[in-house]
């Protein structure tokens, strides 16, 4: 019953959303160049399904690689800031400033610096846009560790590394996964920024672009929905990982 | 009998932005092996600093701390600690929480032996059947029981407790006092108990040390040897009441609210 409900509730919400969308378009008599309806998307998927697979995969793997780099780099920066007050004071303004720069403006710069290296460029933007929440979460998790936790292990003669491995790291995991959920969607935005702003014939962003050039409006909407779908899939992968590694943080409701 | 804990002329100050803040001044405490020593004193008089000094987590500015005839200069695995906050690791089961010190302190126990040891202790404090629960599923008193098991699982010589029962309600606290007596009967350790509760100190300790206000020094040592100790009724005897009165007076002196009177 519970498992059944867990899948049924979001599925019902999605169906309700699609029905509402279909209704709005039908009710207002909008032509599909103004707003395509869900029923317009099916022919688009049927016609270009192989392109969706190829480009979807390109977008997906580059997003995931960018995200992995963001996790590694973000965690390292977060650790440095979490353990050292001086480093925190030094790095925070830099990070905030860097994060405040609209990444759309960075895309042409990056594209010019690493000209022709399309995969690298795309991964770089996906990484740059998504590491910030992770480093903030890790640094907060580590710097708010209650001193008693450290004392319990230190009084037994544990090394700094042991304290980090046995206490600081697991204790930070809930915050880390919270940030990772935000970063997942950000990384998709990064990948598509590169694919759309600096066209290089790869990824779903490129498919969106060709839809625009050919005035194929249902295709453009179909790409957006495909992106949303990939985002949801990746999000739930993160949720599954969270359940495995930080499931203890979830309290029974009641 | 030799002294297990010897604190000799310890002076310690914290560095603050407004210069050093002295918390302990020429403090002398000796605890014989196997004894239980309670330390009471006004709030903020440096009692917690004392626990960190004995545990070797900080070094005194002046003076020496000796454990077992060895000078303490760094943390030692022969010490167990328990705090007001049970600081259990939420991602571990109760059993794995109790096992934590055995993962760090070098020992020759097999995995099986470690588990048996932890299970025995949990049973001793009345937590059998809760081994596989998470800390969040336990009440405050039960968490503190688990925390006590963790602090002695590696058979430390010295158990240092910093207001371990301070956050519990009165009845749970009395339960835990009795648990403490049960543990002492089974496990040989020398105890230092920091507390605000005079009744607690009289019921549990062999001697009660009253610290003066900050910077703290030993103001008064009260020997408490109540007969028929483990029965809670002992707190309501005339003998205990007299001791409580004397301690109460000493606290008021420490707070600067009363003059010392000749006894």
Automatic annotation (TrEMBL), chain A:
CDD domains per record: TM_PBP2 (cd06261)
Domain ABC transmembrane type-1: 56-238
Gene3D superfamilies linked: MetI-like
Pfam families (alphabetical): BPD_transp_1 (PF00528)
Membrane topology according to the record: Multi-pass membrane protein
Primary location: membrane
SUPFAM superfamilies named in the record: MetI-like (SSF161098)
Cited InterPro entries: MetI-like, MetI-like_sf
Localization per record: Cell membrane
Keyword annotations: Cell membrane, Membrane, Transmembrane, Transmembrane helix, Transport
Transmembrane segments: 7-27, 60-83, 90-116, 122-145, 176-197, 217-241
Gene Ontology cellular component annotations, sorted alphabetically: plasma membrane
Gene Ontology biological process terms in this record: transmembrane transport
Family: Belongs to the binding-protein-dependent transport system permease family.
The protein, known as: Binding-protein-dependent transport system inner membrane protein
Automatic annotation (TrEMBL), chain B:
Keywords attached to this entry: ATP-binding, Nucleotide-binding, Transport
Transmembrane segments: none
Highest taxon of the lineage: Bacteria
Pfam families according to UniProt: ABC_tran
GO molecular function, one term: ATP hydrolysis activity
UniProt keyword Oxidoreductase present: no
InterPro entries: AAA+_ATPase (IPR003593), ABC_transporter-like_ATP-bd (IPR003439), ABC_transporter-like_CS (IPR017871), ABC_transporter_ATP-bind (IPR050166), P-loop_NTPase (IPR027417)
Residue ranges constituting the ABC transporter domain according to the UniProt record: 5-238
Family of this protein: Belongs to the ABC transporter superfamily.
Identification of the protein by name: ABC transporter-like protein
């Amino acid at each position: 019953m519970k498992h059944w409900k867990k899948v049924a509730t979001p599925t019902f919400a999605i169906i309700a959303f699609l029905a509402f969308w279909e209704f709005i378009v039908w009710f207002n008599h909008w032509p599909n160049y103004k707003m395509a309806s869900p029923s317009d998307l099916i022919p688009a998927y049927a016609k270009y399904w192989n392109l969706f697979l190829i480009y979807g995969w390109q977008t997906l793997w580059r997003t995931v690689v960018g995200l992995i780099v963001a996790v590694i780099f973000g965690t390292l920066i977060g650790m440095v800031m979490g353990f050292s007050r001086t480093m925190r004071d030094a790095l925070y303004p830099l990070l905030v400033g860097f994060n405040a720069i609209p990444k759309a403006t960075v895309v042409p710069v990056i594209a010019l610096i690493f000209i022709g290296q399309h995969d690298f460029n795309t991964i770089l933007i996906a990484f740059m846009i998504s590491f910030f929440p992770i480093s903030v979460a890790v640094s907060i998790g580590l710097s708010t560790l209650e001193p008693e936790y450290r004392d319990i292990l230190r009084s037994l003669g544990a090394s700094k590394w042991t304290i980090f491995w046995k206490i600081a790291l697991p204790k930070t995991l809930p915050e880390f996964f919270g940030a990772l959920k935000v970063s997942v969607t950000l990384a998709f935005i990064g990948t598509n920024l590169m694919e759309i702003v600096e066209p290089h014939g790869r990824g779903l962003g490129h498919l969106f672009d060709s839809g625009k050039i050919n005035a194929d409006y249902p295709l453009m909407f179909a790409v957006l929905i495909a992106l949303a779908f990939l985002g949801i899939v990746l999000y739930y992968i993160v949720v599954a990982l969270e359940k495995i590694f930080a499931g203890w943080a979830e309290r029974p409701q009641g | 009998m030799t002294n297990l804990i010897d604190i000799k002329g310890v002076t310690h100050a914290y560095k603050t932005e407004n210069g050093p803040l002295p918390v302990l001044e020429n403090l002398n405490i000796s605890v014989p092996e196997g004894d239980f020593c309670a330390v009471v004193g006004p709030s903020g008089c440096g009692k917690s600093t004392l626990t960190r000094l004995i545990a070797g987590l900080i070094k005194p500015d002046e003076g020496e701390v000796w454990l077992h005839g060895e000078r303490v200069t760094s943390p030692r695995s022969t010490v167990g600690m328990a705090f007001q906050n049970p600081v259990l690791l939420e991602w571990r089961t109760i059993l794995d929480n109790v096992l934590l010190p055995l993962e760090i302190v070098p020992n020759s126990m097999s995995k099986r032996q470690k588990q048996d040891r932890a299970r025995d202790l949990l049973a001793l404090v009345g937590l059998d059947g809760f081994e596989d629960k998470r800390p969040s599923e336990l009440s405050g008193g039960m968490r503190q029981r688990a925390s006590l098991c963790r602090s002695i699982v590696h058979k430390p010589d010295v158990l240092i407790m910093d207001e371990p029962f301070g956050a519990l309600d009165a009845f749970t606290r009395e339960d835990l006092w009795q648990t403490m007596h049960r543990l002492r009967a089974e496990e040989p350790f020398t105890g230092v108990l920091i507390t605000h509760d005079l009744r607690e100190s009289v019921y549990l300790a062999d001697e009660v040390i009253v610290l003066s206000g900050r910077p703290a020094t030993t103001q008064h040592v009260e020997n408490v040897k109540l007969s028929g100790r483990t029965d809670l009724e002992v707190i309501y005897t005339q003998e205990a009441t007299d001791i409580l009165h004397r301690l109460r007076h000493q606290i008021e002196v420490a707070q600067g609210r009363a003059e010392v009177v000749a006894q």
